[in-house]
Every structure is written in structure tokens, then in C-alpha cells.
Design goal:
The complex is a heterodimer of chains A (279) and B (285). Chain A is an alpha/beta fold and 279 residues long. Chain A has helices spanning 53-61, 107-118, 123-136, 152-164, 182-199, 210-216, 250-278; strands spanning 11-20, 27-37, 42-46, 68-73, 76-79, 92-95, 170-174, 202-207, 219-223, 230-235. In chain A, helix 2 packs across helix 3 (123-136) and helix 2 packs parallel to helix 4. Classes of the chains: A alpha/beta (279), B mainly alpha (285).
Chain lengths: 279, 285
């Protein structure tokens, strides 16, 4: 692990299986999946569409139950045989694929929502902290605008700030930059790296973009096509802090080459399986 | 050089337009005004075609021309009974509409958020919903002690079902990610309802309100005509039209019809205005 170690936020996924609709069609989304994520580690999950990456994230977040296995956060059971669905909590904040800022609240109101609703801060305190954190993220100028008034990049940065104000142990990101153009994406990467260097929060990040995964992550986990199991784990030993020069290094290029075949193989399998389903 | 500096300063600091200037430059407004004037001219020509050209245009040729309608309007403009009709119909519309909002919004939200409530109340609601409000007129005259209450009840029904179905649809269509995000941040059921479900449903509430308002105007006028608004209930624009028809003054009937159009337009504008005020984030769209 690079940088300062955080004592909290270690995730242990042990032999997790998830079968959707156990009494009906029995679609196995995740099959006997085990994964250890150290506290303060950036774990990037790569795999074909529909392979079960989001299922795993939903199980950690407490949105979905698991069928078998256990998930621990800092050695404390989140879900397992005795409790198939984890409780939702501000210790695991999710940044959603399509964005989930409340359109009826300004950015500062969105960010201040968590501390207010948890009762840990007064409205004035929460707003003051939200404004400060938005300023740190470089978007103080639009703090009082509604999400519909700002660019997708600003909205996404605000959403990460909204997650961070709750002081989570783990940040769960589900393809947050999927629909962005390359330029905005590169700014988002820099912004996330800056946030990570500052907070050292554990990050569980789902993506389709292999270069994004290696650029941001400490560990890249390639998953198989459905049902998801671990195909390959790549340790990214590129030093931090990272910047865009990293993308041109030999080290980076070698890691991309090393991982590309595994990703391509699974993508092809997923495509063929899709063709069969359509036939 | 001075000119260049002046023009540069004009470019760098564009003058803010006043509201009046914005109104004058509003092309949509002018298009609407021109369309209205064009429609009135067309109506006048068609209605007068028999006198002017010796050829009667079917249907519209039998309708009194706008000039005659304007004359009829001038005659009753200072007649208190006409304005009393406005007042009575408007009061009935708003009474029925406000009660429908007060009962319809919580009822629709309860249907959306509570499965047991939905299981019990949705089937009877769906059986009652297709019954046209006017079909309730005879029954409501029997059930309610006064004509005024009968009219209010039928008017209420006109808006109630539309508001409920819109609130239900709006609340059920809230993106589940908003609910998940709020729950992750520690929101309890009460917070979810007030801070997520209710604001998320507001656009549907105001859509339902605008449609419901239109229906209440349709219903109140028909029920005033049917129930004989001149007796216990007293007047109203519906009764004004009906009595003008019975008295054989077609121009006055059209005055009544246009009055309803204006009243309906003003009511809907008011609802839209309140909707815009209560949903500042929607002003962007």
C-alpha cells in the first residue's frame, strides 16, 4: 500500500455466492468469490457487462442480500448466513453510475444532507462544512446551484464530496465516469487521486476501462463473465502521488499489456454468451 | 479610438434587459397574440359571410360574429349577476380543487409507499375512478342536503382521481438510487418520505393539479347546468350559459363560454405559477 495507512476500511469478501430469484430462474450472478481489500487500498474491479460486479458492490453497500458466504468490514460481519443483507450505513458510501444527487437540492444542500439527517451537525454547521469541502474540490463557485445547472463532471465531484462528508470507511464507486468524454474523465481522475491522497479512504471502484483501473488502483481485479469469480489480480506497484505522466511510463504500459489479455478473453466470452442468449 | 473603446465596453458588459423589454421581445407571446387576432378575424369573416358575400359557411355561419358577442358582453359587463356567476363558479372550483388536493396528495402518497394501504384501497379506487364525475350528479343531489354541497362534491371528484393517480405514478417512479443514497447517508423512513419521496413527487403533483384544475372547470359548469344552479346553489357560469340558451341569446351563451375559457386559463396559470415557485430546480428546464 502506498501512502499513509488508514486503520479502518478493510473489506473481506469470503466465498460469496449470489443467486438471483432462488425460487425461480436461478441466475447465478456471483460464484464463490473471495477478495481481500486492505484499509486505504484502491481496489479496481474490471469485468464484462453483467458479470456481477455491481452485485458485489450492492452486497457490500447493503442494497442486496447474498446467498452464501460472508462479507466483513474491519473484521465485523456485514452479511453472512445469519444475516444475508448488510445494514446500510454511512461507513460505506456509494457513488452511483448515473449519479444520484437530489435534483431538488443545491450542491451544498446535497453535500450537507448526510450530517443533518444523521443529527451529527446542525444545519448551519453542515452547510459550512459542505461549502468548505466543495471549495477543496474546486467547485465552490457552483455550490448554490442545482445539479441540473452544472456539468456532469462538477456533479460527479459533488457526489464524491457528498460521500466524503460522512467520513466513510469505504467509498464504493460504480462506474462513476462511464458516460464522460476523455477530457472530463482525465480531470475526474486527477480529482479522485487528489481526494485519495488527502483522505486515504478505502476505494472499491468498478470500471470497464482498463487504463483507468491501472492508473487509479493499487490492485486491479479482473472478474470472469457471469457468474463472477476472480480471474486475475494485478498488483499495481506504481508509486503515488500519480499524475498524467504516469500514463506514459513503461511500468504503466507493461501492466496494461499484462492485464489486457485476461480482460479481452472474458469480454469475448461475455459477447459469445450474449449472442447465444439472443439466438 | 474613442468609438472603439466604447464598443469594446459595450461588448464586455452586456446590458441587462428589463422585464418589460423581455416581454416585448418575447416572440412566443407575439405569436400567440397574432394567432388570437387571426382567429377572431377568421371567425368574424365566416360569421358575416352571408351578409358580406351572400354565401353562408356551414356551422360557423350560424354562430354570432365576435362584434355581436362583444356587444352582448358590453351589455352585461356592468351587470352584477354576471360577475356573481364568475365568483360562484370560481369559488366552487377552488373549494372542490383544494379539498381534492388536501385529500388526494396524502392518499396518493400512502398508496405509493405502503403496500398494505395499497392492497386495501387501490382496488375500490380503481373501480370508482372510471365513473365520470357527471355520473355522480344525480346520486350527489340525493345524498347531499343542499345543491351547493352536491356541486362541491362532484367538483371535488373531478380533480381527486386525477391528482391521486398522478401522485401515485410520480412517487412510484422516483429513482431507487435517490432512496438508496438517502438511506446510505442515514435517512430514516420519515426523512425518506419528507426529503426524498415528497420533493421527488412534486412535478407529478403539479401536473396532476393542472389537469385536475381543467377537469374541475368542466365538471362545475356541467353540474351547475344540470342541478339548476339558480335555485339553492345559485348562479354560476354554467347556469349563466344555460339560462342564456333558454332565453335565446346565443351571443350571451358565447360570452359565457369565453368567460369559462378565460377563468380556466387564469386558474391553470395560477397553478403553473405555484408549481414554478415550489420547484425552483425545474425552472432550468
Amino acid at each position: 500500500m502506498n501512502g499513509q495507512m488508514n486503520s479502518l476500511g478493510a473489506i473481506s469478501i469470503r466465498n460469496v455466492t449470489k443467486i438471483y430469484d432462488p425460487e425461480g430462474v436461478n441466475v447465478m450472478a456471483v460464484d464463490d468469490c473471495s477478495l481481500e481489500i486492505a484499509s486505504g487500498e484502491v481496489c479496481m474491479i474490471v469485468g464484462p457487462s453483467g458479470c456481477g460486479k455491481t452485485t458485489l458492490l450492492n452486497a457490500i453497500a447493503g442494497f442486496h442480500s447474498i446467498t452464501e458466504g460472508e462479507i466483513y468490514l474491519d473484521d465485523k460481519l456485514l452479511c453472512g448466513p445469519s444475516k444475508p443483507k448488510a445494514d446500510q450505513g454511512a461507513d460505506r458510501m456509494v457513488v452511483f453510475q448515473h449519479g444520484a444527487l437530489f435534483p431538488w437540492k443545491t450542491l451544498v444542500e446535497n453535500v450537507a444532507y448526510g450530517p443533518i439527517v444523521q443529527g451529527v451537525m446542525s444545519k448551519a454547521e453542515a452547510h459550512e462544512k459542505a461549502e468548505h469541502m466543495l471549495a477543496e474540490a474546486g467547485i465552490e463557485d457552483v455550490a448554490n446551484k442545482y445539479p441540473g445547472e452544472v456539468s456532469s463532471g462538477m456533479a460527479r465531484r459533488s457526489e464524491i464530496v457528498r460521500a466524503l462528508i460522512n467520513d466513510p470507511k469505504v467509498l464504493l464507486l460504480d462506474e462513476p465516469y462511464r458516460a464522460m468524454d476523455a477530457l472530463t474523465k482525465s480531470i475526474m481522475h486527477e480529482s479522485l487521486l487528489e481526494v485519495y491522497d488527502r483522505t486515504k479512504v478505502t476505494i472499491f471502484f468498478i470500471t470497464h476501462d482498463l487504463e483507468e483501473a491501472i492508473f487509479l488502483g493499487d490492485k486491479v481485479v479482473v472478474m470472469t463473465t457471469r457468474p463472477a469469480t476472480l480471474k486475475k489480480t494485478v498488483d499495481v506497484k506504481i508509486s503515488r502521488p500519480r499524475d498524467y505522466q504516469t500514463l506514459t511510463t513503461e511500468e504503466f504500459r507493461v501492466l496494461v499489456e499484462e492485464t489486457k489479455d485476461a480482460v479481452h478473453e472474458e469480454a469475448k466470452k461475455a459477447f459469445d454468451a450474449g449472442e447465444r442468449e439472443m439466438a | 479610438m474613442t468609438n472603439a473603446v466604447q464598443s469594446e465596453s459595450i461588448i464586455s458588459a452586456p446590458r441587462k434587459k428589463s422585464n418589460l423589454e423581455k416581454l416585448i421581445r418575447n416572440k412566443s407571446l407575439w405569436r400567440g397574440i397574432v394567432a388570437l387576432i387571426g382567429a377572431v378575424i377568421f371567425w368574424e369573416i365566416c360569421s358575416q359571410s352571408k351578409i358580406w358575400f351572400g354565401v353562408e359557411i356551414p356551422w360557423i355561419g350560424k354562430v354570432p360574429p365576435p362584434s355581436e358577442v362583444l356587444e352582448a358582453w358590453k351589455k352585461i359587463f356592468y351587470y352584477s349577476g354576471y360577475w356573481e356567476s364568475w365568483y360562484l363558479s370560481t369559488a366552487r372550483v377552488f373549494a372542490g380543487f383544494i379539498i381534492a388536493m388536501l385529500l388526494g396528495i396524502p392518499f396518493g402518497l400512502m398508496l405509493a409507499v405502503n403496500r398494505y394501504f395499497r392492497d386495501v384501497f387501490f382496488p375500490p379506487f380503481e373501480i370508482l375512478r372510471p365513473i365520470p364525475p357527471l355520473a355522480w350528479v344525480p346520486a350527489s343531489i340525493i345524498f347531499w342536503p343542499t345543491t351547493e354541497m352536491s356541486i362541491a362534491f362532484v367538483t371535488f371528484l373531478g380533480a381527486f382521481f386525477t391528482i391521486v393517480i398522478n401522485v401515485l405514478g410520480g412517487a412510484r417512479n422516483i429513482d431507487v438510487q435517490y432512496l438508496r443514497a438517502a438511506q446510505s447517508m442515514g435517512a430514516k423512513q420519515w426523512d425518506l418520505f419528507w426529503k426524498v419521496v415528497l420533493p421527488g413527487t412534486l412535478p407529478s403533483i403539479w401536473t396532476g393539479a393542472a389537469v385536475g384544475m381543467g377537469i374541475t372547470w368542466e365538471v362545475v359548469l356541467a353540474s351547475e347546468m344540470i342541478s339548476g344552479g339558480g335555485q339553492q346553489g345559485g348562479g354560476g357560469l354554467g347556469f349563466f350559459i344555460w339560462s342564456s340558451y333558454m332565453g335565446g341569446t346565443v351571443a350571451q351563451v358565447i360570452v359565457g363560454m369565453i368567460s369559462i375559457g378565460i377563468a380556466g386559463y387564469l386558474s391553470s396559470s395560477l397553478i403553473r405559477y405555484i408549481g414554478v415557485i415550489s420547484m425552483p430546480w425545474r425552472r432550468l428546464f
